[in-house]
Amino acid sequence: MCGIAGTYLWPDGGPLTDRLTEAVAHRGPDGSGRYSHRAGGGDVHLGHRRLSIVDLSPTGAQPMVSDGLALTYNGELYNAPELRRELESAGVRFRGTSDTEVLLEAWRRWGTDCLRRLRGMFAFGVFDERTGELVLVRDQLGIKPLFLVRRGDAVVFASELKALAGSLGSSLHVDDAALVASLLYYWVPDSRCAFSEAEKLPPGCWARFRPDGRVERGSFWSLREVAEEGAHAQDLPDLHEIVADSTRRHLISDVPVATFLSGGLDSSYLTALAAQSRPGISAYTIGFRAEDAKFEAMPDDLRYARQVAARFGVDLHEIEIAPNVLDLLPLMTYHLDEPIGDPAAINSYLICTAARDAGVKVMLSGMGADELFGGYRKHLANVLAQRYQQVPSMLRRPVHAAVDRLPVASATRGYRSVRFAKRFLSFADLPEETAFRRSYTMYDRAELLALLNPDLAATVDDVLTEHTDTYDDNALTDHVNRMCLADSRLFLPGLNLAYTDRSSMAASTEVRVPFVDVEVVRAAFRVPGDRKVLGRKGKVALKEAALSILPPEIVHRPKGLFSAPLRAWMSRDLAPLVREVVNDGVLVSSGFLQREALQRLVDEDAAGQQDRSKHLWHVLTLEYWYRSATAAGAGEVRAA
User: Fold this and answer.
1) Is 287 in a helix, a strand, or coil?
2) What gap in Å lies between CA 125 and CA 406, rounded to an integer?
3) Which of 91, 438, 478, 621 has the least CB density, counted as fewest CB within 10 Å?
């Protein structure tokens, strides 16, 4: 895993590339390099920061240059051995053992046609000295990030948005629509970027920049098409063998590898498979202060993690999260690049920091299984909502009224079942697509309008409707797989993969995600929805596969949450900061957020009548992100 950056036909591109490369130094503390070339229309510069994982020798250093091609690459290819053998049989002679060299020679031989052959996670830029063209590429599922800014014929790119914002300063402006979207979703979708002049290269896509100013864009992989093809499959895939194969491939490394082990199904499954290939492998798990866990009514995940570790001979490291949240909040907000309101980023950062301190550079995570196999509560809840709508409305009305009166917490503990019931009833009466969207968004239209500057009303409507097609633009007739497809296109790259990449790289650690693998994805959409959500259980097909190696008490345990005790933090550690942001925050002072609406959220949460902890946490992340963005010299919110 590495950090990449570069400029194409950009004035003073060399010094700018150096600044960009230095800004992503945490992604690659093991080495650095810069390539420069004088092209017909201007200079080309590629920068690289190296985290040495495969081929630790100088033959794996980057940017890698060979016979007129220059490559700066971030990622891992898990089918590099097969590609190497194919290229060697065609006469290619390799200098080292890195997958970087395999990618460079694959590009030389097949050009963009090589992309559909790649199995891994990657973002890279490749420059051809003969044609003067630069091509930027991002992997099929958006595991690795790539941000860019165009200015006329010139292009600048980097692994992280903060690098561009810090180097380009006031020429970038905060996009108010992106901030509205972040409030709605608690992350910024891939279709938007926090700065209006910047963009994210979409997953499964490439962009070719030519010296005459022409730009060509293409797609080499479509998740929608994969899902539609899977819907016509006649036989169920052998999920266990496919997941096991992916896990074995993700263990390829010349440095130590460990796993996340929460004690839930996904991490337990991967850890057990990894332990079969690497006996004695290490795993890292988290716990919380006892009073915080009680207040949040959190399950005892540590008990299950210990059980899995003991059964498979795993060296388990336990980390209690009792952090100084006031210090971690601005640190994580900076590293996350955009306003992302998921506190799980803190968990990932602390785990990766502990692993790195122990000499571990590579971690395996169960990320992606919930999106692909129907494992979130929202998937089951939306299926149940369709049944609930068959109940006569005269019977549903008193249920709504009764649940609305119930508290979500007392002075000493929270009530998870009440929180879930309130959340369920907020969308249970809505049409299918609207209900699904409401099941994972933070506000309805009226709430969002009340929270924001009235001048943003039209922007709110645009943001609320912009991803309707993500649910409807496919030929799937299967309710569950439509949800899985929408999540895998929007929620997975925009939130979960984004925070996993940024939080792990902040600790100079590589996180690999064996479930987010092209072959696992193909298999997942060959599984019908009624084999994913069945009765009152989710992720049924994956659970059946996991029974090949895991005991039933782990497979069928209640679902845990890779999150944090937000309500406890809000009522204790963060209460003074919440008051400061509501009364004197820059977003309130600017008029972007409305003080009265924010205060209502605080009062509802404090009274225990509604759980607004996630809303308030995201407001804090948005405030800190905006302070950091404007301090870096970027322009202010234009609508405020």
Assistant:
1) strand
2) 55
3) 91
Give the residue extent of every domain in the chain. Answer: 2-221, 225-373+479-555, 565-640
Look at the chain and count its residues. Answer: 640
Terminal-to-terminal C-alpha distance of the chain: 39
| pLDDT per residue as tens digits for the range 534-545 | 998 999 999 999
Q: What DSSP assignment string belongs to 549-578?
A: TS-HHHHTSPP--SS--HHHHHHTTTHHHH
Using CA atoms, how far apart are residues 154 and 172, in angstroms rounded to an integer?
Answer: 15
CATH architecture of 2-221: 4-Layer Sandwich (3.60)
Tokens of residue 327, six digits: 């210090």
Which residues are bridge partners to 219 per DSSP? 205
Token output for 319: 């980390």
3-state SS class at 261: coil
pLDDT tens by residue, 457-475: 999 999 998 888 888 899 9
pLDDT tens for each residue of 66-91: 999 999 999 999 999 999 999 999 99
Strands across the sheet containing 198-200: 31-38, 43-50, 2-8, 154-158, 147-151, 198-200
d(CA 132, CA 156): 15
Which is it for strands 315-321 and 205-209: parallel, antiparallel or unpaired? unpaired
Residues 53-72 have pLDDT tens digits of: 998 899 999 999 999 999 99
> What is the rounded CA–CA span in Å between residue 76 and residue 55?
12
What pLDDT score was predicted for residue 629? 85
**Strand partners for 148:** 157, 199
Span 273-302, pLDDT tens digits: 999 999 999 999 987 766 665 555 556 678
Query: Is residue 432 very low, low, confident or very high in pLDDT (cuts 50, 70, 90)?
Result: very high
Q: Which of 451, 515, 448 is nearest to 487 (CA)?
A: 515
Torsions phi, psi for 561 (to 5 deg): -130, 125
In whole angstroms, give the CA distance from residue 368 to residue 498.
12
Angle between helices 161-168 and 13-23 (to 10 degrees): 130
pLDDT for the residue 640: 37
Instruction: Kindly give the interhelix angle for 393-405 and 416-425, rounded to the nearest 10 degrees.
Output: 140
How far apart (Å, rounded) are the C-alpha atoms in residues 481 and 471? Answer: 10
Q: Following CA atoms 206, 212, 214, 220 in sequence, which dihedral angle do they give, to the nearest 10 degrees?
A: -20
Burial group, residue 562, by CB count within 10 angstroms (0-12, 13-18, 19+): buried
Is pLDDT of 638 > 60? no
Count other Cβ atoms within 10 Å, centred on residue 627: 16
In the CATH scheme, what is the code of domain 225-373+479-555?
3.40.50.620
The band of 639, judged by pLDDT with boundaries at 50, 70 and 90, is very low
What rounded mean pLDDT belongs to the chain? 91
